[in-house]
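Service request form, structural biology core

Requester: graduate student, group of Dr. S.
Request type: structure prediction, single chain
Budget code: on file
Notes: please return the result as structure tokens.

Sequence provided:
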Amino acid sequence: MTTSHVTVWFDDTCPLCRREIALMRRLDRRGAIDFITVAEASCPIDPQELMARFHAQEAGKSVVSGAAAFAA
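Core staff response, request fulfilled:
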């Protein structure tokens, strides 16, 4: 099992978000991304803020949002 390097939080009630995450899962062949819904308890940011923008966190780094999160 590959250790995750990036965590991505997403709104699983949003159709566009689900499509984007489905694409990211297909592209993540190394299994380096953990996808976590905003409803899960491990979410470190206010759910309302997470639902407004895309957020990600590289291992050992701070959470980023928007375009920086896609680059992570």
